[in-house]
């Protein structure tokens, strides 16, 4: 008997988000980072903003621990929280040290309107929504960065030795980061399993919204936007 392969929910998400992610991948911030030509001030703006973004992003994993369905899932959220604080944010601390920025200065960064709107959106869903909603919100952050890491390695990998931002590409293209993204993709599929279309639509809205915030985040840093007053 012929078996019909049903499409995974994340395959649907990936197909529909392509136009947004393509814009993220072609954003001048991303492309110039890949080439190593990105203006230092723009990168510093990003490093500082991203550091405080990641403090809030880590809290989403803590909510994941609270809402996890079993010990295994709880452990995975706890591990991802740990890796964000000690692996991903270490990248920012290292770059900051290179640019003469102290840890205190990094941590004291005030989030810009876009940064605040993005993290508040996710934290609101995390606290008031289901576990599936939480994962749909935080997934683009992990997944699209992994895609960008792989893409920049493919496009500009030959010139990494002369790219001052090489460590950034190596981090997001790394096996460790990819494993985290793959776990979240798999978890999204498990949590979406058997859900009615009404609920899947809401999950997809969060996924698309977070993906659009990713674009705004690149733009905000490229143009060094901050509070006008
Ligand atoms: C804004 C943003 N989005 C995603 C990532 C990858 N965790 C990040 N560091 N910053």
TrEMBL record:
Source species, domain of life: Bacteria
Protein name as catalogued: Aminopyrimidine aminohydrolase
Quaternary organization: Homotetramer.
CDD domains (UniProt xref): TenA_C_BhTenA-like
Primary gene name: tenA
Limits of the Thiaminase-2/PQQC domain: 16-222
Keywords, in A-Z order: Hydrolase, Thiamine biosynthesis
Catalytic activity field: 4-amino-5-aminomethyl-2-methylpyrimidine + H2O = 4-amino-5-hydroxymethyl-2-methylpyrimidine + NH4(+); thiamine + H2O = 5-(2-hydroxyethyl)-4-methylthiazole + 4-amino-5-hydroxymethyl-2-methylpyrimidine + H(+)
Pathway(s) per entry: Cofactor biosynthesis; thiamine diphosphate biosynthesis
Keyword Acyltransferase annotated: no
Function description: Catalyzes an amino-pyrimidine hydrolysis reaction at the C5' of the pyrimidine moiety of thiamine compounds, a reaction that is part of a thiamine salvage pathway.
